[in-house]
Specification:
alpha+beta; single chain; 186 residues
């Protein structure tokens, strides 16, 4: 048994010394592939431009209204007799009065207009139903969708007093109080 163990140890030592000599990897050659990747292009030169125009003023706040300007409007007589209009096409038409003041302008020269926010709904169908009812009564009505509400507006109008009178009429007719706010296009 001792001779077998001694022989096995001798074979293991011989293999440990000679095996690395045979397995150095001299016979292995790595495949060399040609690269098809093009060379890095030259970077274009960046042009630094100076701004040519002035910076616009901040319009995040509503500027206060300027003085009202009074403009007289002349109502010319129609040259051609008017055609008869069908009953379904008749809508109340508001004619401007002769001495109606022109709309006030804010500091940026934009006319100051007002609108009546009549109601806010979570359901779009309710807002459309109220809008349809108000349009049927001859009012200028529009709706706007907010984050989660549909708001119904009446107007806009340049004369805030007219909207105050309209607000009182709509409160008695529809039971909706509403609030008068500055009209914006957003």
């Amino acid at each position: 048994m001792k001779k077998r163990l001694l022989g096995f140890a001798l074979i293991a030592i011989t293999l440990a010394v000679l095996l690395p000599l045979f397995l150095q990897g001299d016979g292995y050659r790595e495949r060399q592939l040609e690269s098809r990747i093009p060379a890095t292009p030259a970077m274009p030169q960046v042009a630094i431009l100076e701004p040519q125009s002035e910076e616009l003023p901040d319009t995040s706040e509503y500027p206060p209204p300027q003085e009202e300007v009074v403009v007289s409007v002349v109502d010319p007589a129609p040259a051609v007799p008017a055609k008869p209009v069908a009953e379904a096409d008749k809508r109340p038409v508001k004619k401007p009065t002769v001495d109606e003041p022109a709309p006030a302008l804010d500091e940026q020269g934009v006319p100051v207009a007002w609108t009546l926010q009549l109601a806010s709904f979570k359901d779009e169908a309710n807002a459309k139903a109220l809008r349809k009812q108000l349009v049927g009564n001859g009012h200028k009505v529009y709706t706007r969708q907010g984050a989660d509400l549909y708001k119904v507006y009446v107007g806009p109008d340049f004369n805030k007093e007219r909207l105050t009178q309209l607000q009182a009429r709509l409160q008695s007719d529809f039971g909706l109080e509403g609030i008068i706010i500055r009209f914006t296009t957003q």
